[in-house]
Amino acid sequence: MESEEMKKPVFDQEAGSLLVKELRANFAAGKTRSYDWRVAQLKGMIKMMEDHEPEILTALRDDLSKPELESSIYEIALLKNSCVLALKELKQWMMPEKAKTSLTTFPSSAETVSEPLGVVLIISAWNFPFLLSLDPVVGAIAAGNAIVLKPSEIAPATSSLLVRLVGQYLDSSCIRVVEGAVPETSALLDQKWDKILYTGNGRIGRIVMAAAAKHLTPVVLELGGKCPVIVDSGINLRVTARRIIMGKWGCNNGQACISPDYIITTKDYTPKLVDALKHELEQFYGKNPLESKDLSRIVNSNHFARLSKLLDDDKVSGKIVHGGARDKTNLKIAPTILLDVPRDSLIMNEEIFGPLLPIITVDKVEDSFNVINSSGTKPLAAYLFSNNKKLKEQFVVTVSAGGLVVNDTAVHLAVHSLPFGGVGESGMGAYHGKFSFDTFSHKKAVLYRSFAGDAPLRYPPYTSKKIRLMKAFLGGSIVGIIRALLG
Amino acid sequence: METISDLEKQLGGMREFYLKGKTKEASWRIAQLKGLRNFLREKEEDIFEALKKDLRKHPVEAYRDELGILIKSLNLALNDLKKWMSSKTAKLPIIALLSSAEIIPEPLGLVLIISSWNFPLGLSLDPLIGAIAAGNAVVLKPSELAPACAALLAANIPNYLDSKAVKVIQGGPAVGEQLLQQKWDKIFFTGSTRVGRIIMLAATKHLTPVTLELGGKCPLVLDSLSWSLDKEVAVNRILFAKFGCCAGQACIAIDYLLAEKQFSSTLVNLLKAMVKKMFGENPKESCSISRIVNKDNFLRLKKLLDDPLVKASIVHGGQMDEDNLFIEPTILLDPPLESELMTEEIFGPLLPIITLEKIEDSIDFINSRPKPLALYAFTKNKTLQRRMITETSSGSVIFNDAIIQFAVDTLPFGGIGESGIGKYHGKFSFDTFSHYKSVARRSFLTDFWFRFPPWNNSKLLLLDSAYNYDYFGVVLVILGLKRSRKGFNIN
User: Fold this and answer.
1) Minimal CB count within 10 Å: which of A19, A158, B194, B376?
2) Residue B272 in domain
3) Which residues in chain B are contacts of A74 at CB distance < 8 A?
4) What Gene Ontology terms for biological process does this UniProt record contain (chain A) (predicted)?
């Protein structure tokens, strides 16, 4: 039989169905349930990172021109932390939780038992392709599930590295990586999963949820939005500027779901803020930021074109106060600040996801809350820089977002004791730390009753005395019960 | 029926009111919960009347399963509200990049609750309690198949609760569809698996999170019990849970029994004897059995028994009265497993017994079917208990009783797989209608220079040590005693 080249088998519906069937059988056989299996996988993941750090850094440089330090710390170190935490706490997480029971069901005892959901699907994004693929996997493993991971095809070097490393270091009978784009993802979404965790944008998030609805599969959607930064006056401007820059350009050059998207500040304070930002930007990235090795590039030409369009919008030309330089060949855009862009411009109506930072001005800083709330959508994160106690309190109470940070940006995602997730358009569900374990578990209620203590008042035939007694029992007070018994 | 634009105007008004912030205040929530409690106390007669009209529910059953449960929920919410509303501090490592971190519950916004007809009051108001406690504005659509209760709620809720933030909208599937087109911050649905899928699909339009309390076939595994007293108690509990709770029309009703072959004839005799005791010689005369809710459901149940092989397996009961929508407690022994009776959720007073060689075979039997809302197991065998918990999956597992888990508000109540998504009861109700927002605060004073570019190796080492909580390592790097790390180094 002649064939010119070996065609790679297409991952289609049938392949998807076979994959899920195989994993389900292995899950049903109990392979993923034991504490030892989960520990072995987590340790395997740590070893994978220790043995292959240079290759991971290279893949991230290939895919995103990500500075090695960002990769080392924000992708690898954060992931390693997740594994270490899970290893430390797993025994405790796996233990049943006792629940108090009352007189109503006396005698009885109750507990909540965590059990794995089964076979779960994790679809990750391209901007932190290593972390956003494997961090959810850590939670799914800790909870005892079988897993299929579909990394983003927009970060192809990392995607194929994941196939190789996961195949080498983790148990392939229960954890698999499937590469591909739309056809492969659709084939996966057609299957019945016990949970789907998707990181990405709202448009695809809806497609994932609709596919999940067919099988009543619960979902976690980690989406995005426009994360606002309110800057008050009377703050340490240098530190503020540095922290804004780190959250924006120091985080994959603005291509992060929790990057500050735009700033809101008072008209009076704007010149000072812009100066401070300009100054610190030069300190960090030099006079020629297009040549700095410490900035990620724009991921691909599609996004480059998208961001260019935002800058070329008639409404914002003339609003650039810093930067604006572009290098199409190398897919680089310099850190760019725009001032007083109109609210109906393109740049203010979609998530920027790039190195452009518009500043909106208001008369009083308190007006910023209206700006945020009138956008009609709740962002993944919102930030405030202020020393004013009342303003800070108002911020926390009025602004609804996945998470809030006062006097910094982005850092909350490194804190494992905080749930990380959105609300409304920015997503549903949360993970990180124990929340990852919980999100991939079913908390099964277990009630033990004894045969003794059977109250005939529960059963027909019903009498008015029984109704009095029942009221007393449901009320739970001993006095009430005695009264009812005595008639 | 209202037009779409009327509905949108109403909802717009509710959202505007919500955005003003009133529903977030503890005092507002407490006033609403107290108002609800007053309604239940003052209108008790009307409530019993409505439940009798819709389902011929006996007042004792109505109190036990609906009214009493609601009062309990309200008392709990009123008692614990401040605690539920308070923020929780989140633990931070010593090298806190943050000075403080907490998790704060906040309401989701404008939520929709769609309830079912079998516990029309309880399933409408119990989620409502959670939604209000969490500070939301709420639209409640009670089931049109329990019209007296729906009308009662529509008439009274505006008098006891703040109608700017809590509304009852009556109607059937058409109204339901209209409601599903709108934007909600949460949808809470109790009903069938089929409609659950429709709801979740509709919710994707606005990325609305959902809690779906669905159904399924809840099996009861009955092990051989040696003590005759235990046997009696077991049978009493089974009969009450099947026939004495809305005539088996409950999501957590026992759908079918699994028992060992050798035990089956004793079991059948015991069941027959106890049924007579509980419901009398002529169960139709006893006021202790609810009726079937409507003709559609009656005919559905009749059809299940029309199957000749199923009919042949009836060992007790089978009498039906179409005019009064009454079906007497019916017990069947080993009907065919492929019959509709054994593949669809029964939701009625028909109790099949399936016999097995060994009771342990029940595990495979259960696992080869969709995950149920509740799994019941009557056994004193600790090994079997442990196997039931670890080798099967269900919303919940209850040993030696049935239905009663509904009354334990420290346990989450919800399904898994086709039996549902999410949970409620007790504090879980508050949680399901809340968004838990992370709040992190930092001081300007602690600024780590190594967080910022331009990057060099010492900054990398410091970050590496910091993220690994290796404080000693941090010191070494600062002192210049550590200059490289395992793995990548910046030259």
Assistant:
1) B194
2) yes
3) none
4) aldehyde metabolic process; response to abscisic acid; response to water deprivation
